[in-house]
Amino acid sequence: MKLNLPNIPHDKAVHFIYGAGIALVTMHAFMAFAGIDQLWAKGAGLLAAVAAGAVKEYVLDRGLNKRAVAAGDPPPHTVSTGDVIATALGGVLILVA
């Protein structure tokens, strides 16, 4: 029996894993240090994952690309909404877990 598993690009998988990690650490930090209920802490974790993905793509990568182009070099990174979505989906995993 052959399984037809989805082929997920490495970059998207890494974003997903980091999004889940960011959400998990944020959730536990909010619960341990702020005494916030688990559901609200999970929501904070999701927001942190979305924010981290957006900042990484739209601020850091875009800034690196602008500096490289200004120096006459090719842009080193692609700015991808799909990467932000993959990071957010990692946070969603923690939210529903």
Describe it for me?
α1 crosses α3 (81-96) and α2 (38-70) runs antiparallel to α3. This protein is mainly α and 97 residues long. It has helices spanning 10-33, 38-70, 81-96. The chain is built from 3 helices and no strands.
- Average of pLDDT: 95
Q: Tell me the span between the first and last alpha carbons.
A: 30 Å
Radius of gyration: 16 Å
Query: What kind of sheet is the major sheet?
Result: none
Pick out the low-confidence regions.
none
Give me the count of strands.
Answer: 0
Q: What structural class should be given to the helix and strand makeup? A: mainly alpha
- Helix percent reads over 70%
Large-scale geometry: flat
Tally the helices: 3
Helix-strand sequence: HHH
Name the beta content range. under 5%
List keywords for this structure.
97 residues, mainly alpha, 3 helices, 0% strand
